[in-house]
């Protein structure tokens, strides 16, 4: 398939799924988000053994707190605040993205509460304060929670079209020679039969919806 055709199909699918997602009633969106967060917590306990379950620190790698990179939800995206709050309670470290539009780049900063964030124009998406410590060494990252507009069961992701995460993941891969576990979260309605893929697209290892966990 010609590259222009791939991108046209991506754009059409992106617009369709966002419209469908936006039509979810707020109460349904909230309940689905809570279910996704619970599945994500269980996945994190299983895969990384994060936190002080039963009063014990059982982190799989060391006594250092687990480091999770996650987005801050906007609009009709899955609201991850219950998951983020749980991580803080367990002593985990949360880092959220700040955009650098001129470079179409992301910098992740550690946050300890919503007071460490601010709405950024033009859309009012919350981002960390630029003065906060940033994630410098990608080797400390235990997991990246990935947003997106659509996914398929093979792990392909359709983003928002600007390529911010593609560039960030490419930087990590160049430095480490590999990527941390990539976990996508979405509503079941965002799962499609096939995402038109490009050469630079990175696959997710796990996709979590309100009703299931998909290993790709």
Task: Please supply descriptive tags for the structure shown above.
single chain, 216 residues, alpha/beta, Rossmann fold, 3-stranded mixed beta sheet, 4 helices, 30% helix, ATP binding, metal ion binding, ATP-binding, magnesium
- Tally of individual helices: 4
Shape: globular
Major sheet, described briefly? 7 strands, mixed
Q: Based on the coordinates given, report the CATH architecture.
A: 3-Layer(aba) Sandwich
Spell out the CATH superfamily: NagB/RpiA/CoA transferase-like
Beta-strand portion reads 15-25%
Give the number of domains. 1
The total strand number stands at: 12
Helix-and-strand structural type: alpha/beta
Name the strands of the widest sheet in spatial order. 3-2-1-6-9-11-12
CATH fold description:
Rossmann fold
What is the gyration radius calculated from CA atoms?
17 Å
One letter per element, helices H and strands E, the order comes to HHEHEEEEEEEHEEEE
Ranges with pLDDT <50 over ≥5 residues? 50-62
Report the mean per-residue pLDDT as an integer. 90
CATH C-level: Alpha Beta
Helix content: 25-40%
Account of the protein in words:
The protein has 216 residues and is α/β, with parallel strands linked by helices. The protein has a single domain, classed as NagB/RpiA/CoA transferase-like (Rossmann fold, 3-Layer(aba) Sandwich). It has 4 helices and 12 strands; from the N terminus they run ααβαβββββββαββββ. α2 packs parallel to α3. It is globular and about 45 Å long. The protein starts with a helix and ends with a strand. About 6% of the residues have low confidence. This is 5-formyltetrahydrofolate cyclo-ligase. Keywords: ATP-binding, Magnesium, Metal-binding, Nucleotide-binding. It holds the Pfam family 5-FTHF_cyc-lig.
